[in-house]
User: Fold this.
Amino acid sequence: MTTLEQLSEAISLGKNKDARLFAQRAIDENIPPAQIVDHALVPAMALVGERFKRNEIFVPEMLIAARAMKEAMTLLEPRLIAAGVTPKFTAIIGTVQGDLHDIGKNLVATMWKGANFRVVDLGANVSPAKFVAAVQEHRPHLVGLSALLTTTMPAMIDTVRAIRASGASAVKIVIGGAPITQQFCEEIGADGYAPDAGSAVDKASELVAAGAIDSPP
Amino acid sequence: MTPRERYFAVLRGQPSDILPRIPILMQFAAEHIGSNYGAFASDHRVLVEANLRCAEEFGIDQLSTISDPYRETSGFGGAVEYRRDGVPICERPPLLDDRDLGQLPRPDPLQAPRMRDRVDAVRSYLERSGDRYSIMGWVEGPAAEAADLRGVSNFFMDLLDDPGYARELMARCVETAIDFARAQVDAGADTIGVGDAVASQVSPQTYESLILPFERQLVDALHEMGVIVRLHICGNTTHLLPGIATLGVDIVDIDHLVDLAVVRKVLGPRVVISGNVDPVSCVMRGPPEDVKAAVARCHAIAGAPFMVNAGCEIPASTPPPHLHALCTPIAAQL
Assistant:
């Protein structure tokens, strides 16, 4: 196996010490950091997402894979910045106001990072005004809204309305969380619904691939 | 039949006049009586008043003590903050950064204020309603409480990184759950609900090798106390059903994501299935005719023994006619 294959496997299996070891080895082999990301991290997290969608792995396995990816990124990120390499697309993400459950949001954020998005994580319990301010500041291609509780679904409606009313018409809004459905997505005017963290990558890629959002709003 | 009589009739496989209705109410009940969720979670008098009035008005057969996940966590030393219109929060789980189990006290359910408040709720139900209703106490399951103490992500990673530690932590949680349940049974609970929602997010292998043995220990202890055990794991539990089938619980709450035909096939003919009308898309959104039809459909698929319930908590913004529809009397199959 090549070093990149070993790194990819370590990440997908959640072996964080090995991930750090092989990331360092790849750097030592003078593989450009962007190539390490594209050929090891991105496919590893894509595999993790696919396995999750097929119920072959569950949330704990995803969490340790995400931790391994972060371990590799701590070595790669400074080198990517130094090389002037930046992700093509930016996403902001948060749980909506009143919802403090952030595990799903964290997984989606990690999966998006693993798919080479720049992710601005606003955290949990984010007000519509804070989402709007972040959209205006970061000019993202995507906004991800998460709600675990049925009781916070109305806050998702308010947030979508606030973002639309702010004039950020081109930004695409992806929603998810246990009580969320495609029907709810359509009713509140969001652009996409992702039933799980693996699907969130597909949905994000699908939306940013649309020509209308080639440029940030 | 009184609500309690029909509840126990179904549990014993005997004829009952109608299906028992056991929906979970929290914020809905608080707001329905003009109060708020913060008061409901922090003062058993509000919780008792809200659930009793809803039981009378809507025709609910069991009085519940569920409010939020942090009764035991508070007893273990976690600081809980109440919010007027939301679930209480515990910003810093006691073992979030320092995983040393030596720092955990063994909570006394009659001394720890939030645990005592639930015991008082059971006692108040008994004083106010006698034996008219079933009274359900509540404890956190081993995985749920471990996740409350460590933080969900930390606990999930513990399960894979350090199973010995995860086991030790869950053993402490079960010890306290048994203490807490016993106090509620002594106060008058005939049923103990066990909430272990985070278990739905782990693999069947992790569930059966790590979590299930502790759930079994808890269920066995509850049965030794002579009470009915109601297991509540919301979310998609299809992959856990073979393990759940071995627990010997009396009632299993099933969320709307799970096929009731599969549940009945895997759990067998004796377990009471409770569920699984979609709480948001159906109960909250209605219309009432659709809610009634959904209940009938669930009953038809699950067969007997069955109790009426949504997949999880009734959302706060559910119009009251929709809850009336859910609780519309339906003749029970045998």
Summary: The longest helix of chain A spans residues 59-82. The domain at 89-213 of chain A is CATH 3.40.50.280 (Rossmann fold). Chain A has two domains: 3-82, 89-213.
